[in-house]
Fold this sequence. Notes:
This protein is α/β, with parallel strands linked by helices. It has a single domain, classed as Vaccinia Virus protein VP39 (Rossmann fold), CATH 3.40.50. Helices cover 42% and strands 19% of the residues. It has helices at 14-23, 28-40, 47-60, 74-82, 95-108, 119-128, 145-155, 183-196; strands spanning 64-68, 87-92, 113-116, 133-138, 156-164, 202-207, 213-218. It has a seven-stranded mixed sheet, sandwiched between helices. β2, α5 and β3 (113-116) form a beta-alpha-beta unit. α1 packs across α3 (47-60) and α6 runs parallel beside α7. The N and C termini lie far apart (46 Å). S-adenosylmethionine (SAM) binds next to α4 and β2.
Amino acid sequence: MFKRWENLSEILLPEVENFCNTYNEREGILNEIEEFSQKEKVPILLPVSAALLRLIVSILKPKRVLEIGTGLGYSTLSIYFGYREAEITTVDSNRKRLEKAEEFFERAGAPIKTVLSDGLEYMRELLSREESFDFIFVDSVKSEYPFFNYKVLALLSDGGVAVFDNVLFRGYVAGRDYDKKYERGVKLLRKFLEDVKKYPNFEATLIPVGDGLLFLKQKELSYEKV
Length: 226
Ligand SMILES: C[S@@+](CC[C@H](N)C(=O)[O-])C[C@H]1O[C@@H](n2cnc3c(N)ncnc32)[C@H](O)[C@@H]1O
């Protein structure tokens, strides 16, 4: 049974989360990354969140995908297996992690473009080249999210979708008691969740799966008239 090396996300009951984490069939390489993550204590996207991401990507079939926070490439490969024709670019500021992810990509035969850079800086570069993406997944440092959202939305193509992980931060953001040391992170995430609701052309949907996934998509024009 999949057990994380650290706490479960703490949003769902542990037994429910464990049941869901192991329910979905997946490629052996994803199981291997899960094992590596536990052995080496490197965080990855929770399998239940990865399964949802994969499902969404398989429905949306985005041509161009951008990921900020490659880590071990677990989420990247989940996206790739969801839609193998997507052109995927993934960015991480940690060389060691990126190199490990590249090993997994090679073994999976996945032609994923990796970029060693700070996410914000790379997004600036992409905007200056007027690039756009149909699907953007952000799984980096939560406290940086309030500085990412404008860039992420500016990079989305028409009809594009952005997803941010960890936005509920073990439920603390939603009011669960937390240690004082998390105060800054919780406040920043709460502000981020409020800010994204103010973008007039986007709708924000918060899903309590894993550690909390936030979906941002353009509003349907008819939505406002109802
Ligand atoms: C939770 S891990 C990502 C896990 C990954 N999505 C997976 O499922 O394997 C977060 C990653 O974000 C990277 N990171 C943190 N801040 C970043 C930044 N400003 N720009 C780019 N990457 C960043 C870290 O180096 C780390 O590898």
